[in-house]
Amino acid sequence: DETHAEAFYYTKQMAAKTPMVVVLNDCEQLTGVIEWYDKDSLKLNRVGKPNLLLLKHSIKYMYKLADEPRRPR
Length: 73
Description:
The protein is of the alpha+beta class. It is 16% helix and 41% strand.
């Protein structure tokens, strides 16, 4: 049932303090660093904005901010 891939991914991003983009089911995008996670939620720390507790079922997908496609000028 569990491959531990999710735990490995979160642990790696938390240790590196990787800036992440979290896209919610309603397509709202949040940027921050994952502080901790559990089975059902994760805490997203944000600079200059309130930190958030996000329920995993409300997350559509996430990716590293550094992987965000650059828009041409």
